[in-house]
Amino acid sequence: MPALRLGSIAPDFEAETTQGPIKFHDWIGSSWAVLFSHPADFTPVCTTELGEVARKKPEFEKRGVKVIGLSANALDSHDKWIKDIDDFGTKTSGSTHVDFPIIADPERKVATLYDMLDAVDPTNVDSKGIPFTVRTVFVIDPKKIIRLTLSYPAQTGRDFDEILRVIDSLQAGDKYRITTPVNWHKGDDVIVHPGVSNEEAKTLFPGFKTVLPYLRLTEDPSVKA
Ligand code: BEZ
Asked: 20 to 30 A from 163, CA-CA: which of 33, 138, 186, 225?
């Protein structure tokens, strides 16, 4: 199977999750989705990450995004681990309740489909020597198109604010003919898409500023009333 790239259709699959069996495309429905993988249950970095996603779930929901985790263990293990995540998160970072599904993938079926397995790190393997998943993220739009992929090493926890930031950029770019500059956050000035002529820009973005002939800035249209 060819590598998954930005613009590929996210492969559909059926899986058991902590919230019951799913068919992935049906589960996404007309929402956006974030599918993110973890090396294994009861591991420290993963525990902090899942707690953070649980606390940030309202931020994902505000953007019409469903979140779903994957860890290369079985359901009964996930169910026990969730109790630890809630407990640790609540003790250290405020009320934490994992109420999104985590896919059980002990045989690495989904992990193989999404090329989430570690090919390099000899320490990121289970007791049988089978590679664990690395920390991947797939942002998938309502047409089931992959819009962002990330792969982080097992040792490094991800920054979920960055995932939200990219979703803001993608959703603004889908709605308006704009792109977003370095370090952009919702509300900062955006770039008029290079495909928009100056004539069109006068109508679409009155008051836009030409900083360089190919770099025109305008207020973020996604925050206007
Ligand atoms: C962790 O989540 O802490 C972790 C998992 C696998 C390898 C290294 C760290």
From this structure: 225
Read off the tokens for 117. 């397995």
Q: pLDDT, tens digit, for every residue of 24-64?
A: 999 999 999 999 999 999 999 999 999 999 999 999 999 99
Provide the whole-model pTM: 0.95
Catalytic-role residue among 15, 28, 34, 46: 46
Q: How far is CA 177 from CA 141, 173, 217, in A?
A: 18, 6, 12
Cα of 43 vs centre of ligand 1, distance in Å, is 5
Place of tokens 């525990």: 47
- Domains of the chain are 8-158 (3.40.30.10), 176-218 (3.30.1020.10)
Residue 46 annotated as catalytic: yes
